[in-house]
Specification:
Layout (H helix, E strand, L loop, with lengths): L3 E7 L5 E8 L2 E4 L7 E8 L24 E8 L11 H11 L19 E9 L1 E5 L5 E5 L3 E5 L4 E3 L6 E9 L7
Length: 179
């Protein structure tokens, strides 16, 4: 997936200037899950300086600590796109390699259910995504819909025939573990 990232700052004369206009460098197109793609667009840490330097290369955990943020764009493929011959261990390994911190929070049954100690602002950009809260509670979301996720257990599903895209602003909300 291509995500263009434009970064601005104030120049010497206090006028806004573009300092970067290029593809976001930390994008991963999954090999084990066709049409799944994830881009870490930006990250902040508590007390961090206002800078245009790319912080994404240094991110070792996609789950931000208290007061930190992550901005991720995720393309979710239609359910059923995984080749049945794909070894589930390969999917898990790819997730651990490319989604550190989040991958560890997925329940081991392969359901995609997880919870994080964060407040997530989720904007559906394209397509239809279903927010599965477990126990049969499912909310269908279309482009333009917004979710404020407060650490709840959930999974994202795509029951259509086209990939869906969502933007996630993830804010570290607590030093405690998600319930």
């Amino acid at each position: 997936m291509y995500v263009r990232r434009v970064v601005t700052m104030n120049g010497p004369d206090s006028k806004g200037v573009i300092v970067t206009d290029a593809p976001a460098p930390r994008t991963h197109d999954f090999t084990t899950i066709p049409e799944m793609s994830q881009t870490l667009v930006w990250a902040t840490e508590p007390g961090g300086a206002l800078t245009s330097d790319d912080p994404t290369a240094a991110v070792a955990n996609f789950v931000p600590g208290f007061g930190a943020t992550r901005f991720i764009v995720l393309q979710v493929p239609p359910d059923g796109t995984i080749d049945p011959s794909t070894d589930p261990r390969d999917i898990v390994a790819e997730n651990f390699a490319t989604s550190p911190g989040i991958a560890e929070r997925f329940e081991p049954d392969g359901s995609g259910m997880h919870a994080m100690p964060t407040i997530d602002y989720v904007i559906v950009v394209k397509g239809v995504l279903d927010l599965d809260l477990g126990d049969g509670e499912i909310v269908s979301l279309v482009a333009g819909d917004v979710v404020v996720q407060c650490g709840s257990r959930h999974a994202w599903r795509n029951h259509t025939n086209e990939p869906a895209i969502a933007a996630f602003v993830i804010v570290g909300a607590s030093n405690a573990e998600a319930r």
